[in-house]
Amino acid sequence: MKNIFISIVASIGFFFLATMFFSTQHSILIALIALLVILWTNEALPIGVVSLLPIVLFPAFGLIDVKTATANYSNPTIFLFMGGFMIAIATQKIDLHKYISNKLLTIFPKTPRGMIFSVAFTGALLSSVLSNSTTALLLIPIAIFLTENIKLKARLALAIAYGCSIGGIITPIGTPPNLILLGFMQQNSLEPIAFIQWIFLTAPLAFIMLLIIPYILSLGLSDVKLDNTLEHKEELQPAQRRLLYILLGLIITLLVNSKIEPYYSGLGLNETAILLSFGLLMFVPKIGFIEWEDARKIPYEIIFLFGAGFTIAAAFSKTGLASEVANYMLALTNLPVIILILMIASLITFTTEITSNTALISIALPIIYSLGQVANVDMTLILMVATICASYAFMLPIATPPNAIAMSSGAVKVKDMAKFGFFINILAILMITFVALVYWQYFI
């Protein structure tokens, strides 16, 4: 009860602070978002319970109606994760994750730092060609079985999540905000960024982040012993081999389906439908591995968490708070370019922490575009900064899909993610600003 009381008092404080700059309705929304974030962070209530509060609170305060709020909890993205969770449950049920984990242990150094670097790089590389959500869903159940040490489990889960977010920016297909940017540029008659040019721009930033972040995650693990790692098994069981073939089929399907404009248009299939289809395949007799009772293991609290993120984004648009923020940002147009980019990067990064990055970038790009029309700065440059920052949010599980998936593993606590994530957010903002000014503005 103490933490709940603290959360309520803090949100009231945010309300009165917000009234200095915003209308009463907007201040109420800001206060409610603060309440949700604090409750998620201090774990005063279960994460699933907090994630359902927008359905009650937002209509109660007249921000959006119940129908609008609940519709966000059935967003198509949510069903992509349900398919991935079904596959993860099947993987764990037949112990395929243990087999793959032990195979990985023979490849990289058996030290905490070596393991963290390896899973981060693996996640980043796969996320550059698959969606970062899919990659995290496939890798995190495997990574947390590389060790029995609870502290190292948490760091490995975070390394996968952060690695997937870092690698997701390398190609246009790695994460939804990238595709949203390209679509927005096309709609507004801006010259699109070609696939190879995108890689040329983003790969150096991703590489720098992959050198720094795993190192940070490996700090304080010198006392961790790896004696309890699982013993290597030589032979795959028939069920494990069958699931391995299905997973390879899934990866190949996702790769073949991916667009590489203007060279290859892909199969045109919906990625959510693909992953959900393979998830449902897990229930088919003599092909799959799980029964409906196993579906109880799906982390529904994470699904509710995504629904909360989409609902917050809907409230931003419905109440006009997004437009109000845009008006305040117009005051930034006379600032030096470095300050302007720092402000945009900071605003997008920390706003992403409280809403879905896909939903946020859909709201933010028109705002940034309007800002760019007034400011004396390259339009594509600031749109690129905003898009990358939408994927580089590391503090809260609601910020990006990989963060939420790391939470679903049970190995990570919100306060641990927030502790590492805040520092890494600051680092990411500085690195993106540096790369944008020193590198991107000469090649975009």
What does this structure look like?
It is found in: Membrane. With 444 residues, this protein is an all-alpha fold. The protein has a domain at 76-297. Helices cover 70% and strands 0% of the residues. It is built from 20 helices and no strands. It has helices spanning 2-18, 24-42, 47-60, 66-71, 76-93, 96-105, 112-127, 132-143, 150-168, 176-187, 195-217, 238-257, 271-281, 300-319, 321-329, 337-352, 357-374, 379-391, 401-408, 414-443. α5 runs parallel beside α8, α12 (238-257) runs antiparallel to α13 and α16 (337-352) packs parallel to α18. The relative contact order is 0.14.
Concise summary:
With 444 residues, the chain is mainly α. 70% of the residues lie in helices and 0% in strands.
DSSP strand content: under 5%
The average pLDDT score comes to 84
Separation of the first and last Cα atoms: 53 Å
Query: Main sheet, how many strands, which sense, barrel?
Result: none
Number of helices: 20
Poorly predicted spans: none
What is the global morphology? globular
Approximate helicity band? over 70%
Number of strand elements: 0
Judged by helices, strands and strand pairing, the structural class is: mainly alpha
Integer-rounded radius of gyration:
22 Å
Order of helices and strands: HHHHHHHHHHHHHHHHHHHH
